[in-house]
# Entry
Amino acid sequence: MFSAPPDFASSRRMWPQGAIFVALPHLGPILVWLLAPRRMSGWCNGPRKLPWCPPHRVLLLVWTAIYSVMGYASYLVWKDLGGGFGRPLALPLGLYAVQLTISWTVLVLVFAAHTPGLALLHLLLLYGLVVSTALTWHPINKLAALLLLPYLAWLTVFASVAYRLWRDSLCPELQPQPTGEKSD
# Structure
């Protein structure tokens, strides 16, 4: 009889784990949506709306794509280190777990707590953790490390928006005046 090649059989056994790894990062955004469903759509609106602030729908699409890619990258590392949850996985997946938790915290701070200054501090920490994760993953699986680069780019955009929101909340005199209003 014909038997499937070992790689195919192996990949069929790994499919459920891969799906779990891809789905896991989405737990944080789901929690944020449950905590603040009405606040998310207007997160960057107002009389002094940032012209380069991503709309709510773009934000959802980007975070969904990035979290899915991050989950897949973590799956690649997990698989290349033999699966399971042994000692070799402690550092690579431990760093990933910490940076994922900080990422979820940033979402809560921006969308539920509306504290962009605190979110900005967490974003700076997160940036360092993602770079550390990528550097740790690189010897294990180069593709997994490269898949974190779009995340770093998005964190740069998100940090710039958080910085602007924080600065405008502290220094209203630095905010550009909306058209039709005169400055005192």
